[in-house]
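Hi R.,

Here's the chain you asked about this morning:
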Amino acid sequence: METIAKMRLNFLAAAAVSAALYAAPITIYNTGVDSANTLLTNPAVDSHWSLAAGPSGAGTLSVIPNLGPIFSYWAGNGPSAQWVTPTGNALDFLPPGDYTFRTTFDLTGFDATTGSFTGTFFADNTVSDIRINGVSLGISGGDFKNPTNFVINCGVICTAGANTLDFVVTNTTTSASPVGLRVDIAGTADAAAPPPPTGVPEPSTIAMLATGCALFGFARVGKRKLQ
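And the predicted structure, written out as C-alpha coordinates:
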Protein backbone atom coordinates (compact mmCIF):
# COMPACT_ATOMS: atom_id res chain seq x y z
CA MET A 1 0.00 0.00 0.00
CA GLU A 2 2.84 2.36 0.83
CA THR A 3 4.46 1.69 -2.55
CA ILE A 4 1.20 2.38 -4.41
CA ALA A 5 0.70 5.59 -2.44
CA LYS A 6 4.25 6.68 -3.25
CA MET A 7 3.75 5.94 -6.97
CA ARG A 8 0.59 8.02 -6.89
CA LEU A 9 2.40 10.94 -5.26
CA ASN A 10 5.23 10.71 -7.80
CA PHE A 11 2.72 10.76 -10.63
CA LEU A 12 0.99 13.84 -9.22
CA ALA A 13 4.34 15.60 -8.73
CA ALA A 14 5.35 14.84 -12.32
CA ALA A 15 2.01 16.14 -13.57
CA ALA A 16 2.47 19.36 -11.57
CA VAL A 17 5.95 19.89 -13.03
CA SER A 18 4.66 19.24 -16.54
CA ALA A 19 1.83 21.74 -16.07
CA ALA A 20 4.23 24.35 -14.68
CA LEU A 21 6.31 24.18 -17.85
CA TYR A 22 3.46 25.37 -20.03
CA ALA A 23 3.49 29.01 -21.18
CA ALA A 24 2.30 31.53 -18.60
CA PRO A 25 1.50 35.23 -19.07
CA ILE A 26 4.25 37.83 -18.64
CA THR A 27 3.33 40.94 -16.66
CA ILE A 28 3.59 43.83 -19.10
CA TYR A 29 1.35 46.87 -19.51
CA ASN A 30 -0.25 48.68 -22.42
CA THR A 31 0.27 52.42 -22.67
CA GLY A 32 -2.17 54.46 -20.65
CA VAL A 33 -3.29 51.98 -17.99
CA ASP A 34 -2.77 51.54 -14.27
CA SER A 35 -1.54 48.43 -12.44
CA ALA A 36 -5.04 46.90 -12.67
CA ASN A 37 -5.03 47.43 -16.46
CA THR A 38 -7.72 50.08 -16.10
CA LEU A 39 -7.55 53.08 -18.42
CA LEU A 40 -6.14 56.14 -16.69
CA THR A 41 -8.42 59.19 -16.56
CA ASN A 42 -7.60 62.88 -16.75
CA PRO A 43 -4.10 63.91 -17.81
CA ALA A 44 -2.00 61.49 -15.77
CA VAL A 45 1.58 60.19 -15.75
CA ASP A 46 1.92 56.62 -17.00
CA SER A 47 3.82 54.75 -14.25
CA HIS A 48 4.69 51.79 -16.51
CA TRP A 49 6.13 53.72 -19.46
CA SER A 50 8.71 56.51 -19.54
CA LEU A 51 10.67 58.60 -22.00
CA ALA A 52 14.16 57.05 -21.88
CA ALA A 53 15.64 59.54 -24.35
CA GLY A 54 14.62 62.39 -26.61
CA PRO A 55 15.91 65.60 -28.22
CA SER A 56 15.36 67.35 -24.89
CA GLY A 57 16.38 64.43 -22.66
CA ALA A 58 14.55 61.80 -20.64
CA GLY A 59 11.35 62.27 -18.68
CA THR A 60 7.87 60.97 -17.92
CA LEU A 61 5.07 60.11 -20.31
CA SER A 62 1.54 61.36 -19.81
CA VAL A 63 -1.76 59.98 -21.00
CA ILE A 64 -4.17 61.81 -23.28
CA PRO A 65 -7.58 60.40 -22.27
CA ASN A 66 -9.50 62.76 -24.54
CA LEU A 67 -7.92 63.48 -27.91
CA GLY A 68 -10.61 65.98 -28.91
CA PRO A 69 -11.78 66.93 -32.40
CA ILE A 70 -8.53 68.71 -33.31
CA PHE A 71 -6.68 65.39 -33.09
CA SER A 72 -9.25 63.37 -35.00
CA TYR A 73 -6.52 62.22 -37.42
CA TRP A 74 -4.97 60.11 -34.62
CA ALA A 75 -6.60 56.70 -34.09
CA GLY A 76 -8.83 56.89 -31.05
CA ASN A 77 -7.95 55.52 -27.65
CA GLY A 78 -8.90 51.87 -27.48
CA PRO A 79 -10.68 49.89 -24.79
CA SER A 80 -7.37 48.59 -23.43
CA ALA A 81 -4.73 51.23 -24.31
CA GLN A 82 -4.34 55.00 -24.72
CA TRP A 83 -1.97 57.45 -26.35
CA VAL A 84 0.94 58.74 -24.28
CA THR A 85 3.17 61.74 -25.04
CA PRO A 86 6.21 63.41 -23.46
CA THR A 87 4.06 66.36 -22.39
CA GLY A 88 0.54 65.06 -21.81
CA ASN A 89 -0.84 67.52 -24.32
CA ALA A 90 -1.43 66.29 -27.85
CA LEU A 91 -1.34 69.86 -29.09
CA ASP A 92 2.26 70.42 -27.95
CA PHE A 93 4.66 70.61 -30.89
CA LEU A 94 7.98 68.90 -30.19
CA PRO A 95 11.34 69.07 -32.01
CA PRO A 96 12.16 66.61 -34.81
CA GLY A 97 14.20 63.55 -33.84
CA ASP A 98 13.98 60.23 -32.00
CA TYR A 99 11.93 59.69 -28.84
CA THR A 100 12.51 56.41 -26.95
CA PHE A 101 9.36 55.20 -25.20
CA ARG A 102 10.33 52.54 -22.65
CA THR A 103 8.63 49.92 -20.50
CA THR A 104 10.06 46.98 -18.51
CA PHE A 105 9.14 43.36 -17.86
CA ASP A 106 10.52 40.73 -15.49
CA LEU A 107 11.24 37.12 -16.49
CA THR A 108 12.29 35.87 -13.06
CA GLY A 109 11.01 32.30 -12.75
CA PHE A 110 10.65 31.94 -16.53
CA ASP A 111 12.79 30.39 -19.24
CA ALA A 112 13.79 33.74 -20.75
CA THR A 113 14.56 32.27 -24.17
CA THR A 114 10.91 31.26 -24.61
CA GLY A 115 9.50 34.75 -24.02
CA SER A 116 7.32 36.09 -26.81
CA PHE A 117 5.07 39.11 -27.33
CA THR A 118 2.36 40.11 -29.77
CA GLY A 119 0.48 43.35 -30.17
CA THR A 120 -0.24 46.47 -32.19
CA PHE A 121 1.06 50.02 -32.11
CA PHE A 122 0.25 53.49 -33.44
CA ALA A 123 2.85 56.25 -33.58
CA ASP A 124 3.22 59.87 -34.61
CA ASN A 125 5.06 60.03 -36.89
CA THR A 126 6.42 56.46 -37.07
CA VAL A 127 8.35 53.78 -35.18
CA SER A 128 11.92 53.55 -36.45
CA ASP A 129 12.98 50.65 -34.19
CA ILE A 130 11.88 48.32 -31.40
CA ARG A 131 14.58 47.11 -28.99
CA ILE A 132 14.90 44.68 -26.09
CA ASN A 133 17.75 45.46 -23.70
CA GLY A 134 19.14 47.83 -26.32
CA VAL A 135 19.23 45.20 -29.06
CA SER A 136 17.41 46.13 -32.28
CA LEU A 137 14.65 43.72 -33.34
CA GLY A 138 14.49 45.10 -36.87
CA ILE A 139 10.83 46.15 -36.50
CA SER A 140 9.77 49.55 -37.82
CA GLY A 141 6.96 51.36 -39.59
CA GLY A 142 3.43 52.33 -38.71
CA ASP A 143 1.66 55.66 -38.43
CA PHE A 144 -0.88 57.44 -36.25
CA LYS A 145 -4.05 56.25 -38.00
CA ASN A 146 -3.61 52.56 -38.82
CA PRO A 147 -2.61 49.77 -36.42
CA THR A 148 0.70 47.98 -37.04
CA ASN A 149 0.92 44.41 -35.78
CA PHE A 150 4.16 43.08 -34.31
CA VAL A 151 5.56 39.77 -33.03
CA ILE A 152 8.62 39.58 -30.76
CA ASN A 153 10.50 36.41 -29.82
CA CYS A 154 13.08 36.78 -27.05
CA GLY A 155 15.59 34.06 -27.91
CA VAL A 156 18.93 34.94 -26.35
CA ILE A 157 18.13 38.66 -26.05
CA CYS A 158 16.04 38.44 -22.88
CA THR A 159 17.43 37.71 -19.44
CA ALA A 160 15.95 35.82 -16.48
CA GLY A 161 15.25 39.03 -14.60
CA ALA A 162 14.43 42.65 -15.48
CA ASN A 163 14.36 43.59 -19.18
CA THR A 164 13.68 46.80 -21.08
CA LEU A 165 11.46 47.16 -24.14
CA ASP A 166 11.88 50.33 -26.23
CA PHE A 167 9.77 51.79 -29.02
CA VAL A 168 11.80 54.45 -30.81
CA VAL A 169 9.33 56.97 -32.22
CA THR A 170 10.75 59.32 -34.84
CA ASN A 171 9.31 62.77 -35.42
CA THR A 172 10.17 62.94 -39.12
CA THR A 173 9.02 66.48 -39.78
CA THR A 174 11.52 69.27 -40.39
CA SER A 175 9.85 71.48 -37.83
CA ALA A 176 8.20 70.94 -34.45
CA SER A 177 5.08 68.72 -34.47
CA PRO A 178 3.14 66.39 -32.14
CA VAL A 179 4.72 63.14 -30.88
CA GLY A 180 2.87 60.16 -29.40
CA LEU A 181 2.63 56.38 -29.05
CA ARG A 182 -0.10 53.88 -28.31
CA VAL A 183 0.79 50.20 -27.67
CA ASP A 184 -1.35 47.13 -27.00
CA ILE A 185 0.89 44.22 -25.95
CA ALA A 186 0.70 40.77 -24.34
CA GLY A 187 3.37 38.15 -23.71
CA THR A 188 3.95 34.60 -22.51
CA ALA A 189 6.93 32.45 -21.52
CA ASP A 190 7.54 28.94 -20.24
CA ALA A 191 8.27 28.48 -16.57
CA ALA A 192 11.89 27.78 -15.75
CA ALA A 193 12.68 24.08 -15.47
CA PRO A 194 12.94 22.80 -11.88
CA PRO A 195 16.43 21.91 -10.60
CA PRO A 196 17.50 18.30 -11.16
CA PRO A 197 17.07 15.87 -8.22
CA THR A 198 19.99 15.65 -5.83
CA GLY A 199 20.04 11.87 -5.94
CA VAL A 200 19.72 11.52 -2.15
CA PRO A 201 17.03 8.89 -1.32
CA GLU A 202 14.13 9.83 0.92
CA PRO A 203 14.28 8.50 4.52
CA SER A 204 11.38 6.12 3.83
CA THR A 205 13.21 4.73 0.79
CA ILE A 206 16.37 4.14 2.84
CA ALA A 207 14.31 2.34 5.50
CA MET A 208 12.69 0.10 2.89
CA LEU A 209 16.10 -0.79 1.43
CA ALA A 210 17.48 -1.61 4.88
CA THR A 211 14.48 -3.82 5.67
CA GLY A 212 14.87 -5.62 2.35
CA CYS A 213 18.56 -6.27 2.95
CA ALA A 214 17.85 -7.61 6.44
CA LEU A 215 15.15 -9.98 5.20
CA PHE A 216 17.44 -11.18 2.42
CA GLY A 217 20.15 -11.93 5.01
CA PHE A 218 17.77 -13.89 7.23
CA ALA A 219 16.60 -15.90 4.25
CA ARG A 220 20.17 -16.86 3.38
CA VAL A 221 20.89 -17.95 6.98
CA GLY A 222 17.75 -20.06 7.11
CA LYS A 223 18.60 -21.74 3.84
CA ARG A 224 22.05 -22.72 5.13
CA LYS A 225 20.57 -24.27 8.28
CA LEU A 226 18.15 -26.38 6.23
CA GLN A 227 21.06 -27.69 4.19
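The first helix runs from residue 2 to 20.

Let me know if you need anything else.
M.
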